[in-house]
Amino acid sequence: YYSLRQKDKPDTLYQIPVLGGEPKKILENVSGAISFAPDGEQFVYVKNISLDETALIIANLKGGEERQLASKKLPDL
Questions:
Q1: pLDDT tens, position by position, 40-76
Q2: What does the alpha-carbon distance between residue 70 and residue 46 come to, in Å, rounded to a whole number?
Q3: For FRET with 31, which of 10, 17, 48, 72 sits at 20 to 30 Å CA-CA?
Q4: Can you tell me the distance from the alpha carbon of 8 to that of 34, in angstroms, rounded to the nearest whole number?
Q5: Which of 40, 38, 45 is closest to 67 using CA atoms?
């Protein structure tokens, strides 16, 4: 798995086979590292909701089904 950052586009998570081949796009708007559940079927990541809010998301690896676990807004200055 790797994340690709391109100018003016959201960060995108890809999966690439160990023995080579074409990368498979998994999910967009993934910020930072991901972590897998012990069964390897789900993963958790941070998603930028807006400029002042981020969320911790859990998603199914095969279906992309997402569920928000928590969110945080930056404090008003």
A1: 889 998 888 888 888 999 998 876 688 999 999 987 6
A2: 10
A3: 17
A4: 22
A5: 45
